Amino acid sequence: MTDALDQLRSMQAADLPVHGGRTLAYVYDSGLPDIDRIGREAVAAYAGSNGLDPTAFPSLLRMETEVVGIVADLLAAPETVVGTVTSGGTESVLLAVQTARDAHPEIDRPRMVLPSTAHAAFHKAAHYFGVEPVLVPVGPDFRADPATMAAAIDDRTVLVVASAPSYAHGVVDPVTAIAAVAAERGVRCHVDACIGGWVLPYASRLGRDVPAWTFAVEGVTSISVDLHKYAYAPKGTSVLLHRTPQLRRPQFFASASWPGYTMLNSTMQSTKSGGPLAGAWAVLTSLGDAGYERLARDVFEAVDRIAAGITDLPALSLAGKPDSTLLALTTDAGCDPFTVCDEMAARGWYVQPQMSYAGAPATIHLSVSAATLPHVTELLAALREAVAAAVASGPVSVDPGVAAFIADLDPRALSDDDFDGLLAAAGLVGEAGPDGDLALPQRMAEVNAMLNLASPAMREALLVAFLDRLTRPRRS
């Protein structure tokens, strides 16, 4: 009999590494093996526990209230604050939007005001809950503009959003001014601090210049903070805090309209494993405040050293001054950003390509972890080599026929034949043809360049079709 664990280890060998500080997106590594072990053992110990009923598993209730208390203390929350542990940042954002919508049943077509840099999870919430997103352009520094956001608020607005920081560029919006205009109009203000919420308080403590964004800012009504990012907890836990219990009340769902148990949920989930919560609690209590301050010191030293190193690479520049642990790099005309990403991967580093949007160029995204600090010199050396290789190979070109084909497609009517044609042109289909296995290339620059030509709507349509094809079942 084949050992399933052996199979898992074999399959996992093809995945990006989650330790070692070389994967600069998707994962966040403290670099502390004992902390990783504690988190994993706690997840395993509670994998069978069910957070559906807190009276059946009181240890889960205790852990949740303690975790929320730790987060509340970190974010200068008032005594009235309440919170919920969710499965991740997207669920926290969904709940923030759903709660704002359901707090105003009298509004038939609710709206929310978003800077154009707000996370895509808000667009997902808009799609799910029928809340119209009103997108407001940001300034040249990629920060939201309070005046234009204020002008976008109307009688149908139920929520105003700010980021701390925005994912794409790593900058903190002017939350004080945004929250003030929201409060003046009687509208909720949510701060999406999913990626920065755990590390920014320590940045301030270390003397770094961070714009105000916590509950110390009047008018902020809710904040989301992920624990599986810079709290270095196992995937997936996030916390959604509301300033008062009254503000949170519409988040809850209850139903006695069936013959079974009365359903009562605080999140999108009903049954939910106690594992992630236990893992987060174990990591938070093991590291403690002093441990997190030390990790914050490490990650910001890494950020500063990387940012300084970028200035020595003429083809690269920072898209914006980083307020947190995220860096967005732009390239000059002679250096293709997608090729840089491929060349970094060839050298054992994963950096994330970001497409051009609304006139802003494509960028290279880095989410820096504490574990990256010992390897900054290697990272900068790899970047230098990757940039040189990208400059030497020149800009990636898309076949004019393929570019014209993409331009003529209607994203609302993308057919299987259209998609199969693009797959073949991009070299993403195995020998079996359009109905065969997708052949994922080792280098993605040409594919990314092709996507970069497409409109946002067409990118969405192409990637949805790609995901559909990629996730079709394997049959024996």
Automatic annotation (TrEMBL):
This is Glutamate/tyrosine decarboxylase-like PLP-dependent enzyme. Its cofactor is pyridoxal 5'-phosphate. GO terms for molecular function: aromatic-L-amino-acid decarboxylase activity; pyridoxal phosphate binding. Pfam families: Pyridoxal_deC (PF00282). Belongs to the group II decarboxylase family. Sphingosine-1-phosphate lyase subfamily. Keywords: Lyase, Pyridoxal phosphate. It comes from Nocardioides albertanoniae. It comes from the Bacteria. GO terms for biological process: carboxylic acid metabolic process. InterPro entries: GrpII_AminoAcid_Decarb (IPR050477), PyrdxlP-dep_de-COase (IPR002129), PyrdxlP-dep_Trfase (IPR015424), PyrdxlP-dep_Trfase_major (IPR015421), PyrdxlP-dep_Trfase_small (IPR015422).
